[in-house]
């Protein structure tokens, strides 16, 4: 694997006024959707690799004070490449104590809202890396619009958690794919502005280097952001984004065919020792996707050891017609963008580090 993206988290954050902020042609492509103006507010982009990495921790265990257990190791397979993922939490001061907080569902929603704000026209490049300019109030209102209400204090903490949490990814040969905090940079008008409850404080987030790579290399895909934010189950949302990014030939003739253990093992949920719990989690996520008209139906085939012991399950998942239409629109958009790149001679190279299917 040749792609290596390193962005040490110890790099200093800078005041926004000191940064080299500019527009870019690649970011313009990231924001273009061939949709009626009234529908554009419903759409955003998933990005290759980064959205498939199990980088979030769900549940109460994401916040603790035990420095000895300040690292979680997971595994995932992306485009046929087995990757080891190490997640390290952010150190966050809470009054007179310091706690370790892993990025969780809140941080995921904040990231998705920031990416949507970028798509809406506030995506910029700072020091030649993709990011977004916003105010805390804008971010809070965007989350509220999607039905996720957080206080300014919670949003600020989420930003610091994303800035302080580190993901390290390694291929099977031990070569680093990425070593970076979730946000490459947090730029502030002044540091005091973010610490205070000033909702109009101007902020800048530099997206993770893998997000930048995806924007530069046109490996992002259009998806229905409204549907994604409406899905309350974290596992179902993870499933949905993965389908949007990789199920590019979704149809009755091309069902999605994950196995229980393989899928859950590389999701943020992971596997539990009780197979019944794993099956219920998978079925619950799929039933949620049925309610949101992402899938039409699914079939389940248990894998047995002996006559009764369930050791795995194979799922055959058929897309809803609404989702098929979304996939077709996303495929058409990618063709249009690539045509524009060729016509206008824009800089574009394929990612070589992750093998294609």
How is this structure best described in words?
By secondary structure, the protein is α+β, with helices and mostly antiparallel strands. The chain has 2 domains: 5-225, no CATH class; 237-321, Arc Repressor Mutant, subunit A (Orthogonal Bundle), CATH 1.10.10. It is 36% helix and 27% strand. The chain has 11 helices and 17 strands. The chain has helices spanning 25-31, 105-122, 136-145, 152-164, 191-195, 209-217, 225-230, 234-246, 260-265, 275-291, 321-344, and strands at residues 5-7, 21-22, 43-47, 63-64, 72-78, 81-88, 90-94, 97-101, 123-126, 129-135, 166-171, 176-181, 185-188, 202-206, 220-224, 295-305, 309-319. The strands form 5 sheets. The protein has a 5-stranded mixed β-sheet. A hairpin with a 2-residue loop joins strand 5 and strand 6 (81-88). The longest helix has 24 residues, at 321-344. It is globular. The protein starts with a strand and ends in a 13-residue tail after the last helix. Mean pLDDT is 86; it is low at 1-12 and 349-357.
How do the strands line up in the largest sheet? 1-12-11-6-5
The helix/strand order is EEHEEEEEEHEEHHEEEHEHEHHHHEEH
What percentage of amino acids are in beta strands? 25-35%
Class based on secondary structure composition and strand pairing: alpha+beta
Summed up, the helix count is: 11
How many separate domains make up the residues?
2
């Amino acid at each position: 694997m040749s792609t290596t993206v390193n962005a040490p988290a110890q790099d200093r954050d800078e005041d926004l006024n000191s940064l080299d902020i500019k527009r870019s042609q690649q970011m313009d492509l990231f924001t273009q959707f061939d949709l009626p103006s009234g529908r554009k507010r419903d759409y955003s982009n998933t990005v290759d690799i980064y959205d498939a990495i199990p980088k979030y921790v769900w549940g109460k265990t994401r916040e603790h004070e035990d420095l000895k257990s300040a690292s979680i190791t997971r595994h995932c397979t992306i485009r046929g490449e087995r990757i080891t993922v190490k997640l390290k939490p952010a150190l966050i001061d809470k009054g007179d104590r310091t706690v370790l907080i892993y990025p969780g569902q809140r941080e995921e929603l904040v990231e998705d809202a920031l990416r949507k704000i970028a798509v809406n026209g506030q995506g910029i490049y700072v020091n030649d890396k993709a990011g977004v300019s916003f105010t805390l109030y804008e971010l809070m209102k965007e989350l509220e619009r999607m039905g996720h209400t957080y206080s300014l204090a919670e949003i600020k903490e989420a930003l610091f958690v994303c800035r302080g949490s580190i993901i390290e990814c390694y291929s099977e040969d031990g070569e680093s794919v990425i070593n970076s905090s979730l946000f490459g940079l947090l730029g502030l008008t002044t540091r005091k502005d973010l610490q205070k409850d000033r909702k109009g404080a101007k902020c800048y987030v530099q997206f993770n280097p893998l997000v930048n790579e995806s924007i530069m290399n046109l490996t992002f895909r259009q998806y229905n952001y409204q549907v994604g934010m409406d899905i309350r189950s974290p596992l179902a949302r993870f499933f949905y984004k993965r389908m949007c990014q990789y199920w590019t030939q979704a149809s009755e003739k091309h069902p999605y065919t994950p196995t229980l253990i393989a899928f859950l093992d590389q999701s943020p949920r992971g596997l539990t020792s009780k197979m019944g719990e794993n099956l219920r989690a998978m079925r619950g996520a799929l039933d949620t996707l049925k309610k949101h008209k992402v899938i039409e139906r699914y079939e389940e085939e248990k894998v047995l050891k002996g006559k009764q012991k369930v050791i795995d399950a194979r799922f055959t998942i058929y897309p809803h017609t609404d989702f098929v239409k979304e996939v077709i629109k996303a495929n058409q958009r990618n063709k249009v963008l690539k045509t524009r790149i060729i016509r206008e001679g824009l800089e574009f190279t394929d990612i070589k580090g992750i093998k294609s299917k």
